[in-house]
Amino acid sequence: MTPSPPAPRSSLFAKYFLALFAAVVVPLLIAGGSEAWFGHHDQRARLNDLLDAEARASAAKIQDFIDGIRDQLAWTVQLPWSDSIDERRRLDVFRLLGQVPAVASLTLVDATGRERLFVSRIGLNRIEGGFDHSANPAFTSVRSGRAWFGPVTFHAGSEPFMTIAVAGNRAAVGVVVAEVNLKLIWDVISAIRVGRTGEAFVLDRPGRLIAHPDISLVLRADETATRPLQALRARIVARNGQAVSGRDITGQTVLAAMAQIPGVDWSVVVKQPVTEAFGPIYAALWRTGALLIGGAGLAAALAYWLTQRMVGPIRLLEDGVARIGAGQFDHRIELATGDEFERLATRFNEMAGELAVSQERSERIGRLKRFLAPQVAELVERTGDDGVLEGRRIEVVVVFGDLRGFTAFSARAEPETVMRFLSDYYDALDRVVSDHGATLTNFSGDGMMVLLNAPVSCPDPALRAIHMARDMQMSVQSLLLDRRVLDHRLGFGVGLAMGPATVGRIGSEGRLDYTAIGTVVNLASRLCASAGDTEILVDAVAANAVGGRAPLVELKARALKGFDQPVRVFAAVTGEGR
Question: Where does the UniProt entry say this protein principally localizes (predicted)?
Fold first, then answer.
């Protein structure tokens, strides 16, 4: 009698309620936490790329502003100098002042460094002033066809200016030197926006503020007030150009990135308030928190409801599984819940039906293995159809093996010794036959019969049969070598033949065998009887099928019992000289 299961140590309701509640809430917590972490990481990466792109774009705009001034200046040093200033050169200079408001004054210097023309928006113009600029860094540092940018200076401690010198493509055309009012960069920097409230500013190499949307900060030239901006740039440099967080002049926490302006060695820094930059993440976190709270409440309600619905079906399933496990495969679990429990009960019922069929099939296969060779029974088991055992006529290779001197040995030896030897002998041959995919039809005393190409066809059965026969000889000879102390006159001979035969199951209702019938069976049996110890005798058909792929030696034709004419016989070479 099956013992009853022990009483539960805790409430099933409590277990399932906690499990279902945790199954919903824990993934929500993990998902919410991972989403927040990865979202912050991804947003930081996106902001880094965005701010870096904005900084580069801003640097490019300011670079275009400076390049535009440089290109305009280059037009004034195209013509070589003559003894006097021509009217055309003066008109070019005045036209440049009209087109480039940032140029406050402009000086044309010839190749010797002598001032030839000076034009200013706030001072007196000079023609052929003759001042020597040969020692001026703006003249000495500029190269042919290139531009030179001087350091930023603050006139009257307020407005930022920079000297730009441009040399002509030839030394004879001289150099143009211009004083540029950098206050006009405000038009460029004030138009730059990062997000809704983000902005940009420009610092020169020493860290002085050159351009800022709040132009009053630039005009005050107060280094103490601009130290937070210098600190931002220093942190970006320390992080190899990556966006960093810090505080700006107003004390607000911002995220900032930087790009360099080549030539003038200025730094363009773009910044965006952290609250605005991470606004989407903060909003997502609030939504995630709300979802977690709502999910927890819903999980508690669902866990309570589902747990209440689980107890009854689980008990019914438990009883049904116990019956099926006890072997009552005709028992069916009746559940009509319309959910997974009903489908589970259906699966259990299907499993019970399959187990019944499997049990019946196993019993049938077990009966087959009692009467058929193992290979044949396994074939029927694999295919699920014993139609392969029906009688048919095909070309097969029949192999017979038989011990020499076994009758005398069995008469002299103890019965236990004979049976132990036969058991080892059968095991050795069965392993070889299985390894070569052949069908062992039966053992008869000390003899055996093996089929190749039936009931399962195989490629090149004759060659496979010779290889199998060699392995059989080696296995049995090794076994006999260990048994020489029992009887040195024991030996093993093999005969094989190839030809058409009728194969199939044969026998009575209670006892069936799978075998082959035909002349080829008799021929293989006679060849085996004619073979001496260690010999493998092969008929002419099998020898022709093998060709030269296996060493065969033709022997003298032999007269075999049951055959009117002498039969051509070949011997397979199994060792040195044999």
Answer: membrane
